[in-house]
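Hi, does anyone understand the following?
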Amino acid sequence: MNPFSISSTSRVNFCNRVQEIATLQQYMCADIHAVVYAPRRFGKSSLAHVVQSGLTDMERVYVDLFSVTSISEVARLLYFEIANALGADAAKKRL
């Protein structure tokens, strides 16, 4: 039986990335941009989910841009996920 999952995994099944998780969480808290680059199937999406799950004191969104073909599609997906995360009154909230 193959122990590896084909979909994103949770922190329980995620291993050997303690330093990377801590670094990315520090970057997010400090508003520092980061790029995670690796070939397909190396766990980038799982890493993003694990990093986000540890940041419960801030609003965060995850947007999958794999199938995006235009800049307008990027804008639409970002808008949709931000509206879902912050709710209908997002524009009235002070961030």
